[in-house]
Amino acid sequence: MLVWETIIEASDTTMVTTEWAMYELAKNPKCQDRLYHEIQNVCGAEKIKEEHLPQLPYLNAVFHETIRKYSPAPVIPLRYAHEDTQIGGYYIPAGSEIAVNIYGCNMDKKLWENPEEWKPERFLDGKYDSMDLHKTMAFGAGKRSCAGALQASMIASATIGRVAQEFEWRLKDGEEENVDIVGLTSRKLQPLHVIIKPRNL
Asked: Is residue 31 annotated as involved in ligand binding?
């Protein structure tokens, strides 16, 4: 199970998260410019590498905001209550099936200000800790958290940073946000269509 989660789930969620991040960056030129300048200030002419990631808070915020708005796995696969218990004041009898709606949690206006808005800055204002992987529950929590969480986070962040460093991204006319749930992950209904322009590095 640990190997399956690390290899299969981490690669699938990484791909989905990267596509949504690039969609939002292409749609939001100011965010894209801010990310590009942060990378340039840290990396200079050097290509972004894994060791640069701790020095790139805005890139980290882009990653976390993307998995918040576009939860890679919007509903956690069913869990079973093996004994009578209480969760949040609700009585759960043994044998019950429980599904957690992560998308619903991440769109809760009691927890997130303007949740429908993609705003990486929310993870930089001190209210939300971008290093807290449990905040968006994208990787589960506790002893059942995803074994591939760190791998997915590092690979997706490095990929997003690298493509933003190399190219300027703009949406093609008519590009829409449509989400399609296929299996475990939430993909775009149609493949991402963008216009990219190489940057002068």
From this structure: no
Please say whether the beta carbons of 108 and 136 come within 8 A: no
Residue 110's CATH number: 1.10.630.10
Distance of alpha carbon 83 from alpha carbon 95, whole angstroms = 7
Tokens standing for 1?
Answer: 């199970």
What distance in Å separates the CA atoms of residue 107 and residue 66, rounded to the nearest whole number? Answer: 12
- CA–centroid distance for 105 within its chain: 14
* Contacts of residue 24, Cβ cutoff 8 Å, sequence gap at least 6: 31, 62, 66, 69, 118
Residue 6 lies in a domain: yes
Encoding tokens for residue 121? 């800055």
What is the identity of the amino acid at 140? G
Residue 87: strand pairing partners? 90
Structural domain harbouring 118:
2-73+104-198
Mind listing the pLDDT tens digit for each residue in 102-127?
Answer: 888 889 998 899 999 999 999 887 66
pTM of the model: 0.82
Length reported for the chain: 201
Q: What is the residue-averaged pLDDT of the chain?
A: 83
Total number of domains constituting the chain = 1
